[in-house]
Amino acid sequence: MKIYRVNMTEGKVTSEEVKEQYAMLGGRGLTSQIVAEEVDPLCHPLGAKNKMVISPGLLSGTNAPSSGRLSIGFKSPLTGGIKESNAGGTAAQKLAKLGIKAIIIEGKPKEDKYYLLKISNDGIELDSADDLVGKKNYDISESLRKKFGDKVGVMSIGPAGEYRLTAASVAVIDPEGRPVRHCGRGGGGAVLGSKGIKAIVIDDSDAPGVLVHDKGKFKEAAKDFSKMLTSHPVSGQGLPMYGTAVLINILNEAGGLPTRNFRHGRFEFAEKISGEMVHDTIEERKGNPTHGCHAGCVIRCSQVYHDKEGKYLTAGFEYETIWGFGANCEIDDIDAIAKMDFLCDDIGVDTIEMGVTLGVAMEGGVIDFGDSAGAIKLLEQISQGTDLGRIIGNGAGFTGKAFGVTRIPTVKNQGIPAYDPRAVKGIGVTYATTPMGADHTAGYSVTANILKVGGLIDPLKTEGQVELSRNLQIATAAVDSTGLCLFVAFAVLDEPKALERIVDMLNAQYNLKLTTDDVTELGKSILKTERRFNKNAGFNDADDRLPEFFEEELEPHGAVFDIPHQELDQVWDF
Amino acid sequence: MKIYRVNMTEGKVTSEEVKEQYAMLGGRGLTSQIVAEEVDPLCHPLGAKNKMVISPGLLSGTNAPSSGRLSIGFKSPLTGGIKESNAGGTAAQKLAKLGIKAIIIEGKPKEDKYYLLKISNDGIELDSADDLVGKKNYDISESLRKKFGDKVGVMSIGPAGEYRLTAASVAVIDPEGRPVRHCGRGGGGAVLGSKGIKAIVIDDSDAPGVLVHDKGKFKEAAKDFSKMLTSHPVSGQGLPMYGTAVLINILNEAGGLPTRNFRHGRFEFAEKISGEMVHDTIEERKGNPTHGCHAGCVIRCSQVYHDKEGKYLTAGFEYETIWGFGANCEIDDIDAIAKMDFLCDDIGVDTIEMGVTLGVAMEGGVIDFGDSAGAIKLLEQISQGTDLGRIIGNGAGFTGKAFGVTRIPTVKNQGIPAYDPRAVKGIGVTYATTPMGADHTAGYSVTANILKVGGLIDPLKTEGQVELSRNLQIATAAVDSTGLCLFVAFAVLDEPKALERIVDMLNAQYNLKLTTDDVTELGKSILKTERRFNKNAGFNDADDRLPEFFEEELEPHGAVFDIPHQELDQVWDF
User: Fold this and answer.
1) Cβ contact, residue pair A394, B386, below 8 Å
2) Segment B538-567 mean pLDDT
3) Low-confidence residues of chain A, pLDDT below 50?
4) What confidence score (pLDDT) does residue B552 get?
5) Exposure winner among A24, A65, A279, B574, fewest CB in 10 A?
6) B404 to A165: CB separation less than 8 angstroms, yes or no
7) What is the pLDDT of residue A40?
8) What is the rounded average pLDDT of the residues B494-522?
9) Contacts of residue B190 in chain A, CB cutoff 8 Å?
10) Predicted confidence (pLDDT) per residue in B305-356, tens digit
């Protein structure tokens, strides 16, 4: 495998052998390591000194089930700290099959010009992207697939990335060419835009494929692991049937569904935006309720959502998106929410950040809570490049500052996702302490707090939350390095042998003798690397805190976020 | 003397005796101490937990020459750290004469309503300010002086403070009632606005005045000190004659006048915006080139500037303002710059932050460099409350983010003032390390670097800059506590007996036996208190850095900012 270096200052692509210390790194482990080694923590995130590292996971491109995650790493223009953002879609597997361990995009073009990065078995080359400038993601995908064939993978930025907005995402297409999978969080789209890259096309025809040392052992472990995934109630039933939006009713019931900019824990009209409702609507309109975002996924939590006329509206319609535009904005019109999901995918902005941002904009009186037409217009302003669009597209913290709002649900300037930290305290610990800024995926304590997966830790009590979050953060950093979807965690947490099967696959592929302890050590090492970067970028313990308004009581439980600061810091005692 | 506490949540004013440990604190020493003791460093700066502390200096209200400075302290919405911002004008002396050591404004009104704080010999009361809402500073001053008599002091916020913009200032009127003296830096206007206070009127008729223990000794020391100020070439000749704008030609000559958003060290048309030109223009138009911003000032660096028709245009027309809208924006029309100064005073925004912001907006292509009409329109947008106005009014860092600019001259998100840190390295050390964010007044190394005051330290070399900045920062923290104008520093640095005379005045006033060492210790203690607050607010050493673009060579000297990070941190070795 090789690492490619794309120097945008020189317009030159070179390749290098993989250093020995990178051999057992992939995905987040590799992106964070390279960012930490090569990026000045004090650099401007949109300047020549920042780098974007793109890396498939260690198992990507193999037959390991649900292993199609792609990581991108960079210094975040949103948080000012290190960022790893990952997505499904078709890119990771194709890169891995082409023998690409990572792509490091560095420097900055001398002219204000956009390029297309063409990746194939012949290597990587830069081409002009003049014809794509100003285009949105759906259009870009269509145009590139027309030109390069509909089997190619595509990554791209929309207008938000061109405007360098800090909520800009990097889109990755799904198997049908829809740009609905996004490395959403932290402003990767702005970084890619600052490098002058509008799109990346990946043609893996004639790719050598991934070398698996012991195919027999690998197959056996993969089969076993796959069975564990499909037999777990969450990854085998809930997610395939209802998608991630199955969580709407669950979190609402738990009193942890943030409503009206995190003012209440329950949304009166939750039922109207629930996964069950989405499922029935999709069936009725002849969409597809169970769809895989990449080949070989056995969970298939994605779906294709049609409008009232039965025409395609959006896909990959996630819980966090539906929550953000729904409960958080008090919007109960699921079609309007689907339209907003489509707009974000097309313009290239993170749906979570946008959901939080619209809540803050409503708080600031820009539009009223519940105003779905107004919300759609606000999102459209982003691609129009208006002053208001630039405010909204820079996220919740920025929008709050623009409109003098004090109730701003962010940590490290990144919007807090769909689980209220007062009613789900373990996730609050993760929001506060992960080096990523508020991020539920960094240590998804909703498992033991709400879903009773991997045990049960009362979500309303302070006891055990720090340990829960710590263990999950460590495990997640490791999982994010394998290319496996985080949703394998449900099985891993409940099924004693699941982690072993992952290790078996890695050992069979790479001819190694790793143990499960090695996986834990990898996770710890990644977290420490990331935290060191953030310290050198100007963060200290006081940045590992939730906004003050989480001292307010949250109905229905009257819960406050009351884990002492000192205990939060203990997440790092490992 | 008393400390008043204005609780805006309750709408209640109480007074308290001065704690013993506050007795020898005033101005910055007192505001920083109270903020550090009473404000949660993690609070939202515009929320109920922040406080604004207003305090005259220790010598304010006496006959000490040039002792009319007022300090306000708070957690800054611009930097996120502690802030002391001071101004001349008439407020400090009146407060001191009324026996007010400090006013602590805390809480937040329950309703969205504005109040007038009325201060007189009868105490402090809150009154409705409904009639002032939406008004600009000139209008407010006129209206309050009409109502309460033209001898009153007035402090107020303009529309920028009402909009909670982070560049919003607190205006203080001069003896003629013009709101041209501003606690400008750090967003104090937004904090006062968040407390629901639109204006403060100070009526010192029947005030008891300041008690001076040994009047004879005080008078003697004051007289001697006054002579030192008036006989020094800077405070006795340059400043009274040309105002602070005398520095335009000096900095241009030194190659340290930041031009075109800090791209060059000299401005082709510097002569057209120089202090000499301003002086001649004022004389020609029958303005007043030498004016004191408060009674008893012997330096009188202020001036009254008339337009082409001989009508009042602005007053208190400072070097940093003229630099910011002039050289930094490549605008050479001094009347346009004067108009911008007027607009900022009226709207209530910091002229330095606005000068830096307009440079960044020009960099981002919002308007062209040199476009004075466009610049005036941008400033006017602030009071119109447009989306663009909200962007601009939130300062340089915010504007840069909105428009994807990477060349953003800020430290701790506060705009870098009028001295390029590459050509005046001592001031670069101050910008980087002061707890205030980029602030020339926090340790004005221009003295020894450029003006040859207090010795000479080659501005282009790295040697001696850290020590110079450290000593000045310590001394400044102390001077900012006395109520003396920072411009007394020229005499203090060159005249061995000057500091002793200050100590003599303090001893005579308060019946003490302080030594000059005590003054140094006070300065050290203030700085440490401020830095501790910032640490608890999330800052570490990595925040004490200049933006990366100061690695670029600055013409004419080809200078870069090359003081190693490690040495910057040594500022704190005391």
Assistant:
1) no
2) 98
3) none
4) 97
5) B574
6) yes
7) 98
8) 97
9) 404
10) 999 999 999 999 999 999 999 999 999 999 999 999 999 999 999 999 999 9
How far is Cα B519 from Cα B389, in angstroms, rounded to an integer?
43
Measure in Å the smallest separation between the Cα of A205 and chain B Cα atoms. Answer: 37
Fold match between A2-202 and A245-414? no
Pick the CATH number of A2-202 from 3.30.420.10, 3.30.565.10, 3.30.230.70, 3.60.9.10: 3.60.9.10
pLDDT in tens, B262-283: 999 999 999 999 999 999 999 9
Quick check: B402 and A387 CB within 8 A? yes
Q: What is the pLDDT of residues B458-482, one digit of tens each?
A: 999 999 999 999 999 999 999 999 9
Would you tell me which residues 487-546 of chain A have a C-beta closer than 8 angstroms to some C-beta of chain B? 535-540, 542-543, 545
CA pseudo-torsion sign B310, B311, B313, B317: positive
Q: Is A401 on the interface with B (CB under 8 A)?
A: yes
Note the residue count of chain A.
574
Mark which residues 176-235 of A lie under 8 Å from B by CB: 190, 194
Residue ranges per domain, chain B?
Answer: 2-202, 222-572
Q: Indicate the class that CATH gives domain B222-572.
A: mainly alpha
Reduce the secondary structure of A449-492 to three states and give it as a string: HHHCCCCCCCCCCCCCHHHHHHHHHHHHHHHHHHCCCHHHHHHH
ipTM value: 0.96
Please answer yes or no on whether B406 and A47 come within 8 Å at the CB atom: yes
Tokens of A105: 């995009």
Asked if the Cβ–Cβ distance from A398 to B403 is below 8 Å, we say: no
Cβ distance B44 to A406 less than 8 Å, yes or no, reads yes
For A245-414, the fitting CATH number among 1.20.120.430, 3.30.700.20, 3.40.190.10, 1.10.569.10 is 1.10.569.10
* DSSP one-letter code for A448: I
Q: Which of A41, A22, A73, A1 is nearest to A480 (CA)?
A: A73
Instruction: Indicate the pTM of the whole model.
Output: 0.97
For residue A543, what is the nearest residue in chain B, using CA coordinates? B538
CA distance A494 to A453: 6
| Closest by Cα among B164, B186, B180, B182 to B389 | B164
